[in-house]
Amino acid sequence: MDFLTFEDREQDLPALMLLAVSLYRVSPGSRLHIPARDLGERALDWLSRQPNVVLHRDLWAEDTFWNIKPYLLEQMLARGLPRITWLDADLMLTADPAPFFHGLSDDTVLVAQEGFRSRFAGTGGRTISIGRRIARELGYSVNSCVVSVTARHTGLLDRWKSFLRSDLYQTADRRFIVGDQDVLGGLLGSEEFGQVPVAALRTGRDIAHDMLPGDFGFFQRVATLTNGEPRFVHAQGRKTWRYAPGSADAKSLQSQLSLHRHWAKTLRADLPADQTAWLAQDGPLSRLMARLFPRRPSLRGLPLGLIGSTLNLAYILRNKLRRNPTFHVGQTPSGGSPASPI
Ligand SMILES: [Mn+2]
User: Fold this and answer.
1) Is the dihedral of CA 193, 194, 197, 198 positive or negative?
2) Which residues fall within 8 angstroms of residue 120, CB to CB, at 6 or more apart?
3) Ligand 1 ion: nearby residues, β-carbon < 5 Å
4) Which of 50, 52, 224, 308 has the most crowded CB, counting CB atoms within 10 A?
């Protein structure tokens, strides 16, 4: 399998390293393609010694990072790969991802579901916000930390890219359009792409996002006892490798029980010794949970999951008292929304 990522910030090198070594552990035959032109010497030196990393010195992300994902995916497809899968550099793998790719038809796009959000979830509001008629509702918001495409999807990638470059992207309804993933979700719900089959990594089961406490709730964590650990772990919010040892950020509950950090600890031996200080930042609670659940990183975060599930419930109850915008299949942009010129 061919995967693609990009990260050129020196401070985020530990995350990129973890993605590479975790992928190699669980799927040694897979390749991780990385545009190399803007990488620092240190990153280049380490990455060039990884057996599964393919550095592309002739591939870079144009002038803006807004459209980096569709742009790089298109470039890789142009090189003749049958399927290419974008992975955010703040992801790591805990088991072989192959089951999610077996049996995917060439027509199918694979994305990740966003974590639980009590308001403005789904694709309908996003389709309307980019000026399109709603052809279907996927039922979840798209998280573009994983986007897997084939040559059948160049039209989608083109449209995604041009929207990210447009003025509409800057002026769209911020409740629905915050990042590139909202545009992708909106397009997949629109008439133009409403027939494209979409498969999704289920949030809290196939992928655990590490952003809000409720992204990986108490019951989802308990369910890993039967379903196994999520195979994708996404450090979406907390970048625990950046935090100075002993800092308030490093000591916070979310950092202490971060699923990404606890999985990273299992790969400590694969990282350069000077990149591992953040993995040793364990307070009493983190140490206790690791002792209670030596083989179950998801269960070490049960206190966090309990807080998250409680908050999610509170949000759901609060929203019963609020008026939420509603959307339905067939709905068109109204109220003077411009028809999208792109
Ligand atoms: Mn990410």
Assistant:
1) positive
2) 141, 175, 176, 324, 325
3) 88, 90, 145
4) 308
Residue 111: band (very low, low, confident or very high) from pLDDT cuts 50, 70, 90 = very high
The span from the CA of 324 to the CA of 195, in Å, is 28
Q: 199 lies in a domain?
A: no
The pLDDT of residue 336 is above 90: no
Token representation of residue 308: 């998250």
Of 3-12, 115-124, 196-205, 320-329, minimum mean pLDDT range: 320-329
CA of 238 to the centre of ligand 1 (A): 10
What's the domain count of the chain? 1
Q: Name the pairing type of β-strands 109-113 and 142-150.
A: antiparallel
Ligand 1 centre and the CA of 237: distance in Å? 8
Q: What percent of the chain has pLDDT over 70?
A: 96
Could you report the per-residue pLDDT of 230-274, keeping only the tens digit for each?
999 999 999 999 999 999 999 999 999 999 999 999 999 999 999
| 255 falls within a domain | yes
Residues contacting 280, CB < 8 A, separation 6+: 245
